[in-house]
User: What shape does this take?
Amino acid sequence: MKTIYEKIGDERLKKLIHRFYDLIFSESEIRHLFQNSSKEDIMDKQYCFLTQFLGGPPLYTEKYGQPKMRQRHLPHEITVEAKDEWLRCMKDAIDSMEFEDGLGDALYHCFPQVANHMVNS
Assistant: This one.
C-alpha cells in the first residue's frame, strides 16, 4: 500500500509547501511566528519534515536530527487561534491544488492531531 507521500509525489509536495507559505507570508495572522528565519529555510524544514511525516525518506532526521516537533516549537507562543490559522492555511493550500478523489482530505486529516499537540499557550 502506498504512503501519502508516494501518492502525492515529491513535486506536488513542494508545490503544496510553496502555496502554504505564500498564504502564511501574504495574508496570515501568524506570519510573525516565522520572522526569525528565512522563508527558504522554513520551507526546507517543512519539506524535509512532511516528506518524512507522510511516509517518505527520513530527510528531516538526516538533515536536522530527530523531529521532536513539540520541543522545537516551544520557543514560540502557539495558541489555539494560531493552530487554527495554521490549519486554515494548510486546508486552503490543499484545496487550491488538484488531488485525486479523497487524497486532499486524507492529506489534510494528517495535520489536526499534530497541530493540537503544538499548542503551548
Summary: The CA atoms of residues 54 and 110 lie 8 Å apart. The domain at 9-118 is CATH 1.10.490.10 (Globin-like).
